[in-house]
Amino acid sequence: MTFESFIAAQSTLLWSTFAISIILGAVANKTNFCTMGAVSDMINMGDWGRMRAWLLAIATALLGVVLLESMGMVNADQAFPPYRSGQLLWAENLLGGLAFGIGMTLASGCGNKTLVRMGGGNLKSLIVFIIVGVIAWFMVNPFPDSDQTLMSVLFIDWLRPLAVSLSGQQDLGSILAADNAVNTRLIIGVLLGLALIGFIFKSADFRSSFDNILGGLAVGLIVLAAWYISSNLSINIEGEPVSLRDSANPTMEYWDMYPDFHPNLEDKPDGAPLSPQSFTFINPIGQTAGYMGKGFDSTLLTFGVMAVFGVVLGSLLWSLISKSFRIEWFFNAKDFFTHVIGAVLMGFGGILAMGCTIGQGITGVSTLAVGSIIALLAIITGSAVTMKIQYMLMMRGS
Asked: What is the DSSP code string of 293-304?
């Protein structure tokens, strides 16, 4: 999709994101698609239904990305965030994933579920949203009158030296066959995706569950749709298509040489948020907090901000259609503080891990990045261990 102006291309990215995010919110609400719930069902009841739905979303997104990437229709190498970066931040993926897994369990849901619950009238999730948003914002953005962030103050000095610098990208295709990474990713992705689908649909209970099948397929396809749209936006400059990301890159001269394609914009936007990308929710919740805190400054609108608003609206619409909208508040002080602690851990963990159950668990894994796989396993582990501890404490209390 090639446009004659920067604003037209950027608007298409933002409004397309908003549209598919509404679908995501509605589907997640209707089908009760919940990654924390998937772990809970599996650990506490031995029910793999929602876990299979999550795995179906992963398999769908993975198969779609490797197939479209092999045809040049998705560009995950230049993704935001940089899942395939040559610097493997394994310690941050691991620690952040564990913290996020614990946090989402205490806060009754991951980033996406928090937004879905907000749309359904849950005020507890609104408190979680505010806390996650403030922490996520200052993990990435400096404090007022300072060049320090929460990330630089608390984590960089002792975690970043543990990173492993690779000779190339960290995805499995590049690690195993750097000279033929695309085809190698295709082979690995197809084999892994088909193996997951075989495991998923082996269950007769799952095959008979319309909501679980719908939830898994829809979420996976929505993640894939975002990858496709954000990878295929460009601007026509002297007859040549220039990607939206490159057109906004501060190192490029397009803004100075061709002012006609960016009317009414005084400052160059940050090129990174205009890169190929798909859904993740912790950093976007922080971006949304910053956008609202700065008086709804339109220059702060990003893919992530539009995704946040879209999911909440989609969930709200489904809640009204299904007549399931209801206001919920904390049961007691213990419930309040448990959610607050969970929100704090989600804010820190989601940024450290570079994503959440959707951001790393589906979007990141669809790129076959090693860091995403580490983060996903850490999130599941953190959540599962927390549930086991909660169960033991409950049994002792009884």
From this structure: HTT--GGG--HH
pLDDT, tens digit (0-9, with 9 covering 90-100), for 265-304: 555 566 678 899 999 999 999 999 999 999 998 888 999 9
* Structural domain boundaries in the chain: 2-397
pLDDT of residue 134: 97
Residue that has been written with the tokens 């897994």 in this structure: 101
H/E element, 220: helix 210-231
pTM, two decimal places: 0.93
Q: Exposed (0-12), middle (13-18) or buried (19+): which is 397, by Cβ within 10 Å?
A: exposed
Spatial contact of 232 and 72, defined as CB atoms under 8 Å apart:
no
**Whole-angstrom distance, CA of residue 75 vs CA of residue 148:** 32
Up-side HSE of residue 360: CA atoms within 13 Å toward CB?
Answer: 32
Query: What residues form DSSP beta bridges with 164?
Result: 88
Amino acid (1-letter code) at residue 279: F
Q: What is the dihedral of CA 140, 116, 81, 370, to 10 degrees?
A: 120
